[in-house]
Amino acid sequence: MTDLTEKSPALQDVAAKLFRARSHSIEVEARPRTEVLEKPLTFNPPAPKRYYFYLMAPAIAVLAFISLYPFFWLIFLSLQDVDIGGGEWVGFDNYIRLFSDSRFINGWTLLLKYSVICLTLQLSIGVLLAVVVNNSRYERFLVTALLMPMMMAPAVAGLLWLFLYNGTFGWYHWLMQSVGILDSASILARADTALLAVIIVDVWQWTPLITLIALAGLKRVPRDQLEANMVDGASPMRNFFSITLPNLYPVLLIAVLLRFMDNFRFIDSLLVLTGGGPGSATKILPVYLFEVAFKFFKLGRGAAIALTLLLVTIILGKILVRVFENPKAGRS
Amino acid sequence: MFHKPKNALYKTVSRRRFLELGGYGAAALGVGSLAVGMNSTIMATRVQAASSEDAKWKQFAGSKLTFLSENTPPSFAIRDNIKAFYDLTGIEVEVLTDDLPVVQQKVGIDVRAGKADYVLNYVQDKPIGSPFADFYADMTPMFGDETLPQDPEGYGDGSWVENFLNACGRFYSAEKVIALPYDAAIPVTFYRQDLFEKHTKEFEAEYGRRLEFTPDTTWKHVLEIATFFKKLKEGGADVPYGYAQHQGSFAWTTQLDIQRLMFSHGRWTDFNVDDKLGSKTPGKTNWGDEQSIFMLEQFKALADVSHPDNLANGTLELNTVYQSGNIAMQVQYHEFAASVEDEKTSRAAGGKTAYAYCPKGEASWIKNGGEAVNGTNCGIGGIGINKNASEQLQRAAYLFAIWSTSKQLQFDVLKGLGGTPTRKSVLEMPEVVEAKKRPSKMPNALTFDVAYGIGIQDPNFVLGPKIPEANEYHSLVASETQRMLTGEMSPAETAESLKSQIDELNGA
After folding, report:
1. Which of A296, A299, A301, A305 to mutate to test the interface with B (most CBs of B within 10 A)?
2. Is residue B39 pLDDT above 50, yes or no?
């Protein structure tokens, strides 16, 4: 292709005006060009890697002191029989004994049962509430109202429900008795209902968290997808399961992760409500751990229980995170 | 240094001289302060302290102590009146109170860590005394120390209600006393006299004797009374349940409930050791023997006809059930009389409640050949001194210990908040003797004759087990018997399970 400007000076002039911004005058072009150095000059020569280590060292030291040191100390403790008046090295005895400790096994069974029921109820009710509240006329008010149980300290929530469940003056007890759900024994006095009573308190207090997280997720569900589905004749239910729920999936996994870890260290309101009884009906593992370590002062055995709890929490947490990182795998 | 008029008559002071004078002054002040300090604070020598009674009380002025106690009337009253102790000694005492399980944990962590954040502790006999006895200072050397003030009544067994010093002061050794009796909880039978009188004819028709409670009323009678009231209630009569127990969240009270029943029958105890001193190596337990299985069967039978909330009730909750008129009888700690007699909050007040000894053993229920007694246990809270504290602080704490258990203070607490005296002499004071009869200005005194009468005395008194593993022992007994009461295990299985777990616990 021929460049016309080469032949016509007039055209050259027009072109120069048109592309003024891009071209430079001859004078400018004639100036000596600045050489770009391969390595830029600087007042601060690059620091050796050790320098960065020194900068981070205080933070690492603090972290090690508050986190790693107790962790290794816990491991050390779990290999000793630490009782009133001193410790004695016992190797893996504390761990071996756990396998024949019926209260430890019962604690795990109850903890898993408690966690699964709580998570299922909280997820279903939480998402349902979020859908109801989302874009409703009273959304702000409802969200504020829902937050209230969550604001309460768990021990206070335990005390509140202890009074509500009380067989002598408890309002909920009276209500449940009036509608024939309960007989004269209070819900906390029976081994078959005590765990349910504790689950109700947990669901009451922490479902709002799931609702809040789900509500935030609902705001991000693409409206165009929902509308397109509706145009195709999908029912609201179909819309929810095909569009809304898959979009909520990542946020719900965060909620599950949070609640699952909370449940594994749950103790406050349960101690207030039942103390683990009647019998061992509500003695989930964290309560048993608390008893062993701080009531019986068997710190070695307590450390061994704590480490098994930590280990299982880490493994389950990892599984959940993997599902979270690969949602498709989780959905399939 | 300063301007000096030429015609001045006074002498000038050079800079050097001025500094020298200043130095002498400072030194004189320092020596003076030291002298005053040595005379007034914990630097006082024992010779100086012994110079007068006032000096003995004041020798630790300026010290600061912390007393961790359970939420009990004496602690509240002492906290309100702590200025009196400060005025007497110049020692500042902070009284912290909490629920017993919390106190137990805090004390445990403090003493085990070798600390003395709480120089003075509430040594509740088994939950705190049994596991931590070795961490408390032996008070016996201080009892005879002339450089310390002494209570005119002394501290021997004769000064206290029978068995109280053994309960909270002596653990594993008769030679040492680690705590002085500070308050007491003795179980007695609270029953609704009005209801008993009202239904006596129906009861008599069925059981052939009056519906009443006497020192010879046995546990079998209690079972019959509970059965009678339950039957009436289920028949539609407007009556409460007959009986209730505390098998709620606090393991120790559950264990105490069972222990009374067991001991009443042949003086059965958990271990074959000295019940009052206890043992660090108790050996094999008696759980699993014929007597224990039979008594668990009776315990279950009694629970089956009692108020259905037994398994949710701790001490306080059980008393609420009684106060609200939902049971006709309870074996409860005598400190609760004040609340039961409060007409504003109790339906059992106004002379409706009578107090009796704990039920007696039923001869036909005894399988081990022992005697039938009115099995009575207790919760005696002592005041002890943390051994981790310095010697001087221990001596300062001793002053508080003897002051807080003195006759006059115990009387004041009883009059003010409804305390539970531990010194015998308080019970003999004319005002207290008068208060044992209705109308009483000190409702707790209504229980004194039965609480401090035969129950707490031998052979009815049972204390143990004082073993280092007492808390785990209580927890095991409570959870296994609760499982039995819910129908999860039979009495025989429960006794067997207890035997194997307790023997493993004690390495027997």
Report:
1. A296
2. no
